[in-house]
Amino acid sequence: MFDRIAANIPLAAVLMLLWFGLSGNQGWLFGTAAVLCALLVTNRLLHQDPERLSLAGLLRFSAWFVSRSFLGGLDVAWRALSPGKNIDNALFTHRFKTANPSARTVVIGALSLMPGTLSVAVEDDHLTVHSIAGDVHGQVESLEALAIDIFRPEHVHKGSEAR
């Protein structure tokens, strides 16, 4: 039991830092409850042991997602406010490289949250994506690589192999 609690500490710390940054150091009681709920959902719904999640992968994904969301928002605003038709609708199919259902779920959800893109359909190993910025296939591949890294365990340290 203590191993499971200890395994959640890095994720809890990252979530609390995010809460601190986004809330301006307000509402710590609510933030703590939100983090505890997030940890419960993560452990129950993803069916992943916390020690199988990569904190480094989660941080890389978070940085990429925040930066792409910001840049995507600027791009959508520019397209909406500039004269003429600047919408380059594209519908394309991405073939998943991973069979990990959690990584696939992250890709599908993140795409739908990013400005200008939408996950349209999933069929077998194929994801249909709609974009207003033309073919963003390279970005979808980058997103999938980052999502895969979230679910890779960190390298085992030499001193912990004998446990």
UniProtKB/TrEMBL annotation:
Coiled coil: none annotated. InterPro entries: Cation_antiport_E. Its main location: membrane. The chain crosses the membrane at residues 5-22, 28-46. The keyword Cell membrane applies. Keywords: Cell membrane, Membrane, Transmembrane, Transmembrane helix. It is found in: Cell membrane. It is a multi-pass membrane protein. The keyword Transmembrane helix applies. Pfam families: MNHE. PANTHER family: NA(+)/H(+) ANTIPORTER SUBUNIT E1, NA(+)_H(+) ANTIPORTER SUBUNIT E1. Belongs to the CPA3 antiporters (TC 2.A.63) subunit E family. This is Na+/H+ antiporter subunit E.
